[in-house]
Amino acid sequence: MISVDMVDREAIYEELRGARATFRRLVEDARPDDLARESSGTRWTNQQLLFHMLFGYLLMRPLLVLAGMFTRMPVSASRVFAKALDEMTGPFHWVNYLGSCLGARVFPPRRMAATLDRVTMALERRLRAETGARLHSGMHYPVRWDPFFKDFMTVADLYHYPAQHFDFHKQQLTLRQVGARSGDQDLGDRER
């Protein structure tokens, strides 16, 4: 019989591998004018949004460390921490926006893809070492910071977070589809 823990791990491995392959394809197929184009529903260009998608994975290491610290404390500690962070939502959104603008200048697209490869492979290795008890431990999160943060998330939920973030923002990219000719269509068949 397969344990719930094993099913969760396999789903996470698939998400990590899928994001890696998708991101590489998006970056390799994007032309300079695609990268400079505005994304849909954000103030970022496609290149800035690609960095933001990468950043969701870069945040995993500090989030996992934070979860490890708070799971050793009473649950009320993470509740207070999450509430304090929620109070700083406005400044967080500005830092989040500007950080992705700057990150896109520092990380050229191919470097972004190589970085995502390294980060997702490191997350796979880390996940293999996680115990079932650790995966089911959790803490409170600032729900106003991101629509994919829930009030209380387990470490397993946290491993799923960057894939949800990635998939959501992927739909906002306005990159042309591979193989499209004149009158190119945007990724996801959206009209601009």
Structure description:
With about 190 residues, the chain is mainly alpha-helical. The protein is about 65% helix and about 5% strand. It has nine helices and two strands, in the order H-H-H-H-H-H-H-H-E-E-H. Strands 1-2 form a two-stranded antiparallel ribbon. The protein is globular, with a radius of gyration of 18 Å. The N and C termini lie far apart (about 50 Å). Mean pLDDT is about 90; it is low at about 180-185 and about 190.
Q: How much beta, percentage-wise?
A: under 5%
What class would the helix/strand composition place it in? mainly alpha
Unreliable stretches covering 5 or more consecutive residues: 178-186, 188-192
Distance between the termini: 49 Å
Main sheet record: 2 strands, antiparallel
Shape: globular
Mean pLDDT: 89
Strands of the widest sheet, in order across it, are 1-2
- Counting DSSP E segments of at least 2 residues, the number of strands comes to 2
Radius of gyration: 18 Å
Strand/helix succession: HHHHHHHHEEH
Q: Percentage of helical residues?
A: 55-70%
User: How many individual helices?
Assistant: 9
Task: Characterize the quaternary organization of these chains.
Answer: single chain
Structure in a nutshell:
The protein is mainly α. The chain is built from 9 helices and 2 strands, in the order ααααααααββα.
